[in-house]
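Hey, can you fold this one?
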Amino acid sequence: MMDMIFTKIQSLISKTKGIKKGILAFDLGSYSIKIAEIQIIKDIPVLTGFVQGKTYKNVIINGIINNFHYLVTNVKNILENLGSFQKLGNISLPYNLVIFDSFKTSQLPDEEEIRSKINEEIPYKIEDIYYSYYIVPKENFYQIFYLVAKKDIIEQYRALLKELDYQINNIDADFINLHNLIEFLYGKKSKVIIDWGYSKIKVLFCDTEFPIYSRELSNLGLKNLEKNIIKELRIDPDTAESLMVNPDRGGQYSDLKKIYINYIKETLDEIDYTIKFVTDKFKISIETIFLVGGGARIPNICEIVKNILKIETEVLKIENKIKISDDIDPKYMKIINTQGAIAIAGGLRDFL
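Sure. Predicted structure:
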């Protein structure tokens, strides 16, 4: 398991030496905000709360906080529905705010060599970023995978939690948290994690041990499906959004199924191309595709993906290995396991 992969960031902003009571984990998206509460009960981490709400328009753009004060109000309103007394917070940093890449060396490099190489490859000054890395030995070389995040972006998120009166426990990359959670739930296996969001789709490839490659499909998020529904069915955005949440209610729209089919085909064609490219580049074979995000709630999506891509496909079921509070409605677990996966992964990162 990749424990504390973002060590540089953690060492600079972490203010605690272990969680004694519980924590809140924040997934702050451009379209929605999800917050998970993990508490320690009888020495066991338990999911005791989860809440989500819409993000105010344009307060977060591509992961960057665009309107700080509106976001503070936005998050406070959502937290009121959770009613938590926890004061420690974890933040999952969205993928588009980090650089994840790798380079090869013939000999095992030292810290200064790695730092120098990262400095050559990134578009920022080394003093303006936090970075972390891990080294994977290969047959005739070493491959160094690195993560980079700008300091000023991290400071935005630090300031947000401070304004909300929370103490920061950790900031991690969201896809690293997802990798660790899935490894805990399903064991070590080569996998593709598809985070099927509203504005974009993020595709992360992992071998049996580590993330190795990622790609964003910026024009294929659910927003694109919503746009097509509005255009083809000539309906208003609110009706389109309702149909996306529950397409079974769209019986009166004969073309709705066709729109879904075209959208899914276009998306899976692009994912299939990426899978073929990555498996050839890194010489790996994918065992399982894991779906998270709103797209993971498309009816029968696991079967559709499996049939088209010919790879076993699953949606997370955290309740199989993680204790869930009796206060959480079992019917809500479908939302938690899909749209709430990043928040859950961020909250459980200290206990996996």
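The chain has one domain: 7-226+258-351. Let me know if you want another pass with a different chain boundary.
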